[in-house]
Amino acid sequence: MNPNNPLIVQSDRTILLEVDHPLHTEARDALSQFAELEKSPEHIHTYRLSPLSLWNAAAGGMDAPEILEQLTRYSKYPIPGNIAVEIREYVGRYGRIKLVRDGEALLLHSDDAALISEVLHHKRTQPYILRQIDRSTLQVDASRRGHIKQALIHIGFPAEDLAGYSDGSPLPMLLRSETTIGKSFEPRAYQHAASAAFYANGAPSGGSGVVVLPCGAGKTIVGLTTMASVQRATLILTPNTVAVRQWISEIIDKTDIPPEMVGEYTGDRKEIAPITVSTYQILTYRKNGEGDEQDSYPHFSLFTSYDWGLIIYDEVHLLPAPVFRVTAEIQARRRLGLTATLVREDGREADVFSLIGPKKYDVPWRELERQGWIATAECHEIRVSLSEDEQMNYATAETRDKYRIAAESPEKLTVTQYLIDKHKNDRVLIIGQYLEQLKQISETLEAPLLTGRTSTSQREKLYEQFRRGEITRLVVSKVANFAIDLPDANVAIQVSGTFGSRQEEAQRLGRILRPKSDGGMAYFYSLVTRDTRDQEFSANRQLFLTEQGYRYVIEDAETLLQVHS
């Protein structure tokens, strides 16, 4: 027992962490390996131990004694007995059942005969079982490998998949030591480590899983490094056409693959090549919304149209539900997920774990910032007020309309103008949710507006002008959340967001985290209307950044504007 420590571990699986404690950073980094952040007000942050957080830790090589040692090291009081028991129990469940191959047969094996009996008789797993071989082994339908893994995680026993992968079509490739413009190139140590953790030298224990790295930390390079290790035909899935073209550009720039061997499969083009880059949108396009799965999703055939040896899911936290279904059918392909956050807004993190794979590698954002690989970021929350008339309008509005009224507060435009003046020599992104609000900001600032309706060619043109410094202000809708490469953007002003989306906050901060050529800072401003749904949602969005070690400076708009008037 040490009352001077920063943690309190409670019997309901919550863990309280003192923010202002000298050991806060150390304790936070320890907790992030095996617990999930739930609340992050100013002084006490609340984490929770969950089965999934413990299984991810176990898949990453942590065992129960190590987790208990970390908790004991930072805890004020003894660890409650039930928590120690639950940690041992849940960590011990990962890998208690193994999926293995015996020739063409797919087997479920466990040394725990009672567990095998439970799986044999459970209604979730029964549809996939062909027969019992002995008291420790079941034969399951090899074509339903993903479905059995989903069923097992839902009954609380995630399988360790050691059944291996089909090789896929050979694709010899090398990473260049110099890019096409003669710049020296070598993946960073953590990019090599992330790829190696995923691939595991080709062992059955590797080949499926998720790498978690901040936006701007070069997740694409992790993908290229993995492709060079696997040396097989690769399908890459991304959120949008701009991201497709950025991947293609990086592949041609940093590998020896000739351009004619890289295909774009989008709404604009339908090329299939040894390396094919596509979008989630095209895969989830439905003909008439009718017919069977294959008919209603005609582009699902992309998964089987080539003998892929690797499938890369970029921004895997955005993976749409229909793509989960087809992913369950292709478990014999190696699968790499890339993301800045494992948080999903639909709560399907367990499906990412079972179908793409467990977390194989992550590194705290602040650690990469300390090493200079991403820009140092300063986060500000600026609180604006509603006028009396707006307060009355807000008070009498339907619940579903309240957030929009608060998010579109006119005072946010005034604060945005102030911040634009303050950062007149910087490259600024103004990001929001509501088009009318963004149109008004765009007109007032005389800055280009980029939305989902902007054509791909126009988007690419605006991004290129921004990169060259021909324009230094860009007003963007939700399209800016995903995979755009604007290395010199160093200021983001968020005027409204998608309700309480933690993943969106991560993406938006990520837009400005690429290291600056002058070594300068990045500034992230979130404009929030006080005492409204806007403030409540903002608190939830900030959870992700708090987890990564960022703290918001909370400022009052009135005071700010008066001081500088």
UniProtKB/TrEMBL annotation:
Quote any Pfam family the record assigns: ResIII
What Gene Ontology molecular-function terms does this entry list? 3'-5' DNA helicase activity; ATP binding; DNA binding; hydrolase activity
Task: State the superkingdom.
Answer: Bacteria
Q: Which reaction does it catalyse?
A: ATP + H2O = ADP + phosphate + H(+); Couples ATP hydrolysis with the unwinding of duplex DNA by translocating in the 3'-5' direction
Enzyme superclass (EC)? isomerase
Q: Enumerate the spans annotated as Helicase C-terminal domain.
A: 414-565
Alphabetically list the UniProt keywords. Answer: ATP-binding, Helicase, Hydrolase, Isomerase, Nucleotide-binding
Task: Report the EC code(s) recorded for this entry.
Answer: 5.6.2.4
- Residue ranges constituting the Helicase ATP-binding domain according to the UniProt record: 200-360
PANTHER family named among the record's database cross-references: GENERAL TRANSCRIPTION AND DNA REPAIR FACTOR IIH HELICASE SUBUNIT XPB (PTHR11274:SF0), RAD25/XP-B DNA REPAIR HELICASE (PTHR11274)
**Do you know which NCBIfam families this protein is assigned to?**
repair_heli_XPB
- Of which family is this protein a member? Belongs to the helicase family. RAD25/XPB subfamily.
- What is this protein called in UniProt? DNA 3'-5' helicase
